[in-house]
Automatic annotation (TrEMBL):
This is Bifunctional inhibitor/plant lipid transfer protein/seed storage helical domain-containing protein. Pfam families: LTP_2. SUPFAM superfamilies: Bifunctional inhibitor/lipid-transfer protein/seed storage 2S albumin (SSF47699). Residues 15-106 form the Bifunctional inhibitor/plant lipid transfer protein/seed storage helical domain. PROSITE patterns: PROKAR_LIPOPROTEIN. The keyword Nucleus does not apply. Residues 1-23 form the signal peptide. It comes from the Eukaryota. Keywords: Signal. The keyword Manganese does not apply.
Length: 112
């Protein structure tokens, strides 16, 4: 009797929460974040753009840092076909590194 109830519970869980059963993860970025990055960073990310870098202090990088872990792979994973045709995915991925804020210089160095 217990095994029957357990099997039914597992079946209900599999139907109600398929991403838990199949271990598919929900993206850690949202569509609105992707849209804001594509809009604000468009001068850099548009295909054919000659801009090679963005400043970590830019509005573009502010938006990138709003994505959990600045995970641009997540942003690329939810691009539509149209967005992929208009934006350079390599440049979008590079935003993760370009937008890192460098650590402050070490203040404890001894004077020579």
């Amino acid at each position: 009797m217990f095994l029957g109830k357990l099997a039914i519970a597992i079946l209900v869980l599999a139907i109600a929460c398929p991403h838990l059963v199949t271990s598919q993860r929900q993206p850690i970025c949202r569509k609105i974040q992707k849209l804001r990055i594509l809009h604000i960073c468009r001068a850099f990310t548009k295909k054919g753009s000659t801009i090679r870098a963005v400043s970590p202090e830019s509005k573009c990088c502010e938006e990138v840092r709003k994505v959990q872990n600045s995970d641009m792979r997540c942003v690329v994973s939810i691009l539509t076909d149209k967005e992929r045709s208009e934006h350079d995915t390599d440049k979008i991925l590079s935003l993760q590194t370009l937008c890192e804020i460098p650590p402050p210089p070490n203040q404890n160095k001894t004077m020579a």
